[in-house]
Design a protein that fits this description.
Length: about 120
C-alpha cells in the first residue's frame, strides 16, 4: 500500500449505511471505469446482452453507457461491492428501468390551471 492510501473495509462501511462514502471513493471510481472499459462504454441492456430477468429492452440499439450497476445490490451483499463480476455497464435510461424509477423520471407533469381573479 502507498503511503497516502487509506484502507477501507467497504463491506463493513456499507453495512453501517455509508453507501454514499463508498460511491465517492477512489476504489469505486477505479473499478467503475474498469467495468465501463470492459463493456466498451456500451449499454449492455439495450445491446440485449444483459437483463435482470424482469425488464427487457423494447428494441436492441447501440447506446452509450454512463452508469455502472451492481447486479446484486450492495445493501444485500456488501461483500460484492467491489466484485467486477457483479457490475454491468448501463445507460442512465436502462438503469432507471432496472431500478423501476422510469415511471417517475419520464412522467410529464400536468400544468395546474388556476382561475384568474381580478
Amino acid at each position: 500500500m502507498g503511503r497516502n492510501k487509506k484502507y477501507h473495509n467497504w463491506p463493513e462501511e456499507i453495512s453501517k449505511g455509508h453507501t454514499n462514502k463508498f460511491y465517492h471513493s477512489t476504489d469505486w471510481k477505479k473499478l467503475r471505469e474498469e467495468r465501463l472499459k470492459l463493456d466498451k462504454y456500451k449499454c449492455q441492456f439495450f445491446l440485449g446482452k444483459w437483463n435482470d430477468g424482469k425488464h427487457f429492452p423494447d428494441k436492441i440499439k447501440l447506446v452509450e453507457a454512463n452508469t455502472v450497476h451492481h447486479i446484486i445490490p450492495i445493501k444485500e451483499r456488501p461483500d460484492l461491492a467491489l466484485d467486477i463480476n457483479n457490475l454491468i455497464s448501463l445507460s442512465f435510461e436502462a438503469h432507471e428501468i432496472i431500478e423501476e424509477r422510469q415511471r417517475w423520471t419520464w412522467r410529464k407533469k400536468k400544468k395546474l390551471l388556476t382561475k384568474e381573479r381580478w
